[in-house]
Amino acid sequence: MAVVARISQRVSTHVGHTIWIEAVRVERDHTPTRPLQAYMAEDTIVQHCILWQQILIFFARTQVAHDRHRPQYLFTRRQQRAWDALWAAAQSVARSSSPPPTVPRPRQATRSTDDADASDASDASDANEDGVDQCGTPTHDTPENRAPFELTAIEAACLDFCMELLN
After folding, report:
1. In total, how many domains does the chain have?
2. N or C: which end of the chain has fewer CB within 10 A?
3. How confident is the model over 47-103, as pLDDT tens digits?
4. Would residue 151 count as lying in a domain?
């Protein structure tokens, strides 16, 4: 769980200021006074993950059929799909002795094509011959550049389930 939080922190350090503000916006017409903090200490990340681990443990224990009384709750269809994917990934990891393969997260296309073309042109002008832009971010999409941002299948399923719980 802490790995997912660390990867999220790493991703947020590589995005622009406007995306930080958009990520922490709580109301449509309200802009928060501070952007997303992508510089949490390691022990702080672990402390924030403990609650999510407890939530996942609660669901894992209550989803298994027992003779004793279970709390009455129902997942939405999307939450149930995400839970089933997480449970299947956890079962496959438990059965296998090798570490799970990493699954790159797909990029979400949220910009229009005109914006993307203009942005790509400006990105190309910002990059130097070494393949690094002015912020120090590599411009070439290589496996070495993607490695710190890739999640394993169970980490991706866990992140998807936690996001569905928040939806």
Report:
1. 1
2. C
3. 888 888 998 988 888 877 666 776 677 889 999 999 999 999 999 988 886 555 555
4. yes
| Domain annotation covers residue 126 | no
CA distance 12 to 95: 33
SS3 of residue 152 by DSSP: strand
Taking every pair of C-alpha atoms in the chain, what is the biggest distance, in angstroms? Answer: 66
| Range 129-149 burial, b when 16+ CB lie within 10 A, else e | eeeebeeeeeeeeeeeeeeee
Residue 124 belongs to some domain of the structure: no
- For residue 46, the enclosing domain spans 2-116+132-166
Under 8 Å between Cβ of 128 and 80: no
Could you give phi then psi for residue 15, rounded to 5 degrees?
A: -105, 165
Query: How far apart are the C-alpha atoms of 83 and 34, rounded to whole Å?
Result: 33
